[in-house]
Design a protein that fits this description.
Shape: globular
Distance between the termini: 53 Å
Strand order of the largest sheet: 1-12-14-13-15-21-16
Structural class: alpha/beta
Number of strands: 21
CATH topology of one domain: Aminopeptidase
CATH class of one domain: Alpha Beta
CATH architecture of one domain: 3-Layer(aba) Sandwich
CATH superfamily of one domain: Zn peptidases
Helix content: 25-40%
Bound molecules: zinc ion
């Protein structure tokens, strides 16, 4: 594939060359016998070589191996993959300088094998009128593999609540409030909710506040399949979620090992009693497929649910409580027939309904039987290191999790396939003596992410100081391909420029006349006051292992993937997410046939990695933080200004602090530009790079959000207030709004403002010349 034509930049001219010539460059060993130079800078030829060698077919073969069997955290197959990664990273021809594992003893949650979780409709005399599937239908033989974990809500407590069913939409606080205001007595009911809106665990937390006894969660075909729900419209006939597919997931509210917050989960560490640990759902909860949800939901009585609560199950959604007197339950899967048929496709779609049960369904209830168990298990991280030639004590970390819910072809193996291909190409150059990075590169395969980012969080707890002192940036590639339309990047402002530089020099898959950047800007863009129209970078929440790096350690982080054309699908996420249908065949046929999007992500992430590890000056543009600060400040002035004035609270010091930041960032940028024209003194380079690296740390305040776990970044902590400004200020104002002057809530607003001013002043001080205080 020829390289896309690009304008400008140091690699511009070289990028016009074809792949043949690129490989030609590689044939001439370069710098093999030269001593590491303090001026060692990014080598465009090495970059081209790496881009040319990242191979789509090898990524495909990696994925086939990684997703061959289910590999939930701590399972034998998960441990086998630990060995696979070690073997690759210790390979004499394509491995890294060193590789090893570290184990933590962490609290996981699994369904009981002896007592499977089940959900039944129970008649007045205790007879079972309907029972939900206990496992997904075996459509492609992958679903009957012995280690397929039955659908469950990890960390939901055991229990067997039974009650009348209500429909509670997405299970948000407003949804339950609506039901309450409708006069529905929620006490001891079972609430059926759909995925989306709020987090998994929040559905049970909100429900319990209203006395709900148990929660069911399903995926509505309107939210995941663009309305399609028939077997012949879904996988294996399309990428749609089959009717029996169930999204598994962690219902734990925080991240990290639940028993050792802020401490690494070593065997000797202090542990909370699991009965006292917080963040677990308060009531039994179980996910089900939309095929079963349809039977429950379409038989509900009561008022019709609001328009925006309706979905695509093909019936009117009512609120309940309880079922209609003429309700009808397809009885093909009553207690005696719960096992998944081994012949696969025959059940249950076309079976006739049995004669109406003798007892009236109106008084029938739903029983939710959950038998999940909490267990301490060993989970491993695998780390592989390429030692830096000039600055071995500066780390660029590139990571992804290894554990999946079932086969996990997309989540997370699409990311690990890319990770392994990047490490193979770099490892080969390393072993041939062709290249060694300026800074150290650390590759990481995290354990137990699906349960709550556990492996990565424990790692940041164990090496807190070392990582904070020495890590330049963290690159995360979890799901590398959601779909094959466009790049999607999330990150803090300093990483924007390096992602842009990489994306401008790589051809977009399937559209080789366009760069990834030019393709990206057509899908996600924004108008920047500094640059004009640019692709828009998303912000980092806590969806993957970057969370402890950015929120807890304050390390500039990013997450990269290829994703959807939003004009073609409104799916919440790729349809087989966390189900037994997320398989190699699914990716190979429907997500990325040919693996060109995987290759595009490998090239983008590989280029970003090389730029961060090899550039003389770190390619972190700290002045890009100014745009964020100004937009937050403007939102505060416009939406909170009057309110704050009434309380005699001034935004003046914040305005001054933002100005100081602007000045310091601009001056630093000019200083670096000037130095880049000459041959700068190595110590001067190092001092400036430390300023760039440490900027993100200055936004941390570990006392800012005492109610949050790990969140201490004053710009990116979770925002619950409606004003899109600094999260601490937004949240404090929304709490104070209806309180009187002099209340504790208004004092908190003032405290949050002072925290911000101090952080921004500190940030500016870090960017100013080091000799000035
Ligand atoms: Zn993942």
């Amino acid at each position: 594939m020829p390289w896309v034509k690009v304008l400008g930049g140091v690699v511009g001219a070289a990028a016009l060359l074809g792949l043949g010539i690129i490989l030609g460059h590689f044939a001439i060993p370069k710098g093999a016998n030269q001593p590491a130079s303090q001026e060692l800078d990014l080598d465009p030829e090495i970059l081209e070589t790496v881009m040319g060698q990242l191979d789509a077919n090898r990524i495909r073969e990696n994925l086939r191996e990684l997703s061959k069997e289910p590999h939930v955290a701590s399972s034998p197959r998960d441990e086998a993959l630990v060995q696979l990664l070690l073997q690759r990273w210790q390979d004499p021809d394509s491995g890294l300088d060193s590789a090893g594992t570290s184990e933590y003893e962490v609290l996981l949650s699994f369904p009981s094998q002896e007592q499977p979780n089940h959900v039944d409709v129970v008649g007045p005399s205790g007879d079972i009128l309907f029972t939900c599937r206990r496992s997904e239908e075996n459509l492609t033989k992958d679903q009957e593999a012995p280690d397929v974990l039955s659908p469950y809500a990890a960390y939901a407590p055991p229990g067997t609540p039974q009650g009348l069913l209500v429909y509670a939409n997405q299970g948000s606080e407003e949804d339950f409030l609506y039901l309450y205001n409708e006069g529905i007595n929620l006490q001891d009911t079972i609430a059926l909710t759909r995925y989306g809106g709020v987090g998994r665990g929040a559905k049970a937390v909100n429900a319990a506040k209203y006395g709900v006894a148990g929660v069911l969660v399903y995926t509505d075909p309107g939210d995941i399949n663009d309305g399609k729900s028939l077997p012949n419209e879904t996988y294996p006939h399309s990428w749609g979620l089959p009717p029996s597919g169930v999204e598994r997931g962690s219902y734990f509210e925080y991240f990290g090992d639940p028993l050792t917050p802020y401490l690494p989960a070593n065997p000797s560490s202090f542990r909370l009693d699991s009965a006292n640990a917080s963040g677990f759902p308060p009531i039994p909860t179980q996910p089900i497929g939309f095929e079963d949800a349809k039977v429950l939901l379409c038989n509900l009585q009561g008022n019709s649910a609001p328009e925006d609560w309706q979905g695509a199950l093909g019936c009117e959604y009512n609120l309940g409580p309880g079922f209609r007197p003429d309700g009808n339950f397809s009885a093909d899967r009553t207690a005696s027939a719960v096992a998944v048929p081994s012949d696969g496709n025959t059940l249950p779609h076309a079976l006739p309904l049995l004669p109406a049960p003798t007892s009236l369904p109106a008084t029938s209830q739903v029983n939710v039987s959950v038998h999940n168990r909490l267990v301490l298990r060993n989970s491993s991280n695998v780390l592989g290191i390429i030692r830096g030639a000039v600055e071995p004590d500066r780390y660029v970390i590139y990571g992804n999790h290894r554990d999946s819910w079932v086969h996990g072809a997309v989540d997370p193996s699409s990311g690990t396939s890319v990770l392994l291909e990047i490490s193979r190409v770099l490892g080969t150059l390393l072993k041939k003596g062709t290249w060694r990075p300026r800074r150290s590169i650390v590759f990481a395969s995290w354990g137990a992410e699906e349960f709550g980012l556990i492996g990565s969080t424990e790692f940041t707890e164990e090496f807190f100081s070392k990582l904070q002192e020495r890590t330049v940036a963290y690159i995360n590639v979890d799901i590398s391909v959601f779909a094959n339309a466009t790049l999607r990047a999330q990150g803090t402002p300093p990483v924007q420029s390096v992602i842009f530089s990489a994306a401008k020099q790589i051809p977009a898959p399937g559209r080789s006349s366009l760069s990834i950047y030019d393709n990206w800007i057509q899908y996600f863009n924004r108008s920047s006051p500094v640059y004009g129209l640019v692709p828009s970078l998303g912000t980092l929440g806590a969806g993957s292992d970057y969370a402890p790096f950015i929120h807890f350690l304050g390390i500039s982080s990013m997450d990269l993937a290829y994703t959807y054309d939003r004009s073609k699908t409104s799916a919440r996420i790729y349809p087989t997410y966390h189900t037994a249908f997320d398989t190699f065949d699914y990716v190979d046929k429907f997500v990325d046939p040919g693996f060109s999007s995987h290759q595009a992500v490998a090239r983008t992430a590989g280029s970003v990695l090389l730029r961060l590890s090899d550039s003389l000056f770190l390619p972190l543009n700290v002045s890009d933080y100014s745009e964020t600060l100004h937009s937050f400040l403007q939102a505060a002035q416009q939406n909170l200004g009057t309110l704050l004035e009434q309380q005699s609270i001034s935004l003046g010091p914040l305005v001054t602090a933002v100005e100081k930041f602007d000045e310091a960032a601009t001056a630093l940028g000019q200083h670096i530009s000037a130095l880049q024209k000459g041959t700068p003194d190595p110590l001067q380079v190092r001092m400036l790079n430390d300023q760039l690296m440490l900027l993100e740390r200055t936004f941390l305040n570990s006392r800012a959000f005492p109610d949050e776990r790990y969140y201490s970044h004053v710009l990116w902590a979770p925002r619950t207030g409606s004003v899109a400004t600094f999260p601490g200020l937004s949240n404090a104002c929304s709490r104070a709004m209806n309180t009187t002057s002099g209340s504790a809530a208004w004092a908190e607003v003032q405290r949050q403002l002072s925290i911000l001013v101090a952080a921004l002043e500190g940030a500016a001080a870090t960017l100013r010349p080091v000799a000035e205080l």
